[in-house]
Design brief:
This protein has 220 residues and is an alpha/beta fold. The protein has ten helices and six strands. It has helices at 12-26, 37-46, 67-74, 90-98, 111-122, 144-154, 159-166, 170-184, 189-198, 208-219, and strands at residues 3-8, 29-34, 51-56, 81-85, 103-106, 127-128. The longest helix is centred in the first third of the chain and has 15 residues, at 12-26.
């Protein structure tokens, strides 16, 4: 029977990266993505027992603090749920643990550690760091070119289209991407973008100006 996994995440790239990780570990599964609190509650109420696992971002539109975590708890689904969040609040961490959730994983977790946590959650083994580190200013510094590149990746552009946009060779684009992945200790472009967003190095929203440039280029 295909396992159904609910991924509550309002950023498409982060949701896709999480789904890809689950696919690598679980194989046969059916992912369902929800980008806001209202839809999440509807899905929980429709088939509460159908969810094999739930990966929950606390900060999606319509959710406040631990509001969605409480909704999951009252439905008896805490034991199937792992919080994946940018919040490093010790209070949140302690509450989630006390309420019997399967885990609490920070989005800024290094890729290999993040993947190991996802694997544990899918196996039904709890994954909590012993302590939540205090927020530290990131030591990662991006060049102007790297920032441009990440913003274009966030917008969904391929290496070929980025090459045309920045007027550089496609091989140079790939080399820059490799350097960025190493800087963020990321296993994929989506994960690197997610890390950059969480660290405040690029904006989370779509680059509307980039879309306009591409539109004009295609119609000119």
């Amino acid at each position: 029977m295909t396992a159904r996994v609910l991924i509550v995440e309002d950023h498409p790239l982060v949701g896709e990266a999480t789904a890809n990780l689950v696919a690598c570990e679980l194989g046969d599964f059916s992912p369902v993505l929800s980008s806001n609190a209202e839809l999440t509650i509807q899905l929980l109420d429709q088939e509460p027992e159908a969810w094999f696992r739930i990966f929950l971002d606390l900060d999606v539109p319509g959710a406040y603090g631990l509001s969605l975590a409480k909704e999951i708890r009252v439905r008896g689904l805490a034991g199937r749920t792992c919080v994946i969040s940018a919040f490093d609040s010790p209070e949140y961490f302690d509450k989630i643990r006390q309420w019997g959730f399967l885990g609490y994983v920070a989005k800024a977790t290094p890729f290999l550690e993040f993947r190991a946590a996802v694997r544990s959650i899918l196996d039904g083994v709890s994954s909590f760091r012993e302590e939540v580190p205090a927020h530290k200013q990131t030591a990662i510094r991006l060049t102007r070119r790297q920032t441009q590149l990440l913003e274009l990746i966030r917008s969904g552009l391929t290496s070929r289209r980025i090459s045309a946009e920045l007027h550089i060779a496609e091989g140079t684009v790939n080399n820059l991407v490799t350097a960025i992945l190493q800087a963020f200790n990321a296993g994929s472009r989506a994960h690197a973008v997610a890390r950059a967003i969480e660290l405040g190095l690029i904006d989370a929203g779509p680059d509307h100006r980039q879309g306009e440039r591409l539109h004009h280029r295609g119609t000119g």
